[in-house]
Amino acid sequence: MPGETTNSATEHREQAVEGERGALLTVLVMVLLGVAGIFAVS
Fold first, then answer.
1. CA distance 26 to 31
2. How far apart are alpha carbons 33 and 36 in whole angstroms?
3. What is the distance between the alpha carbons of residues 21 and 15, in angstroms, rounded to a whole number?
4. E strand or H helix at 1, and its extent?
């Protein structure tokens, strides 16, 4: 039983990390698009 609980905990942690990575990548892409848009306008 303890092994199963630790496995489920690590899986949840991995999913949380993947979610954070996706959010960070989304923010970076939005910033890059904003900067590119500013240069395109100017």
1. 9
2. 5
3. 10
4. none
